[in-house]
Specification:
about 90 residues; mainly beta; six-stranded antiparallel sheet; about 0% helix
Length: about 90
Amino acid sequence: MPNRTLVGQGQIIFVQTGYVNNVQGNGDWSALPPDPGSNQWLFKFRMFPQNHAIFTWFAGPTSDFNYLANSFYNPQTGSTVQTNCQRIG
């Protein structure tokens, strides 16, 4: 069984302001089973960077084992949040 820890780095892009924050740090992850009527598993990642608040993101498998992606539509704002992840190492 995996130990569910991670070490990650990446960017958080705030679209409304154009601000980009580079983050890196330790974290954890878990696998979430598909919603009813779906066969799409999601992975939940949580990162504890030193230069940013703790945050969580979700991503699902793509056709390439090394990449995960997801899009969430927010009906309150009309915006879409896109998540893209790449496994390194």
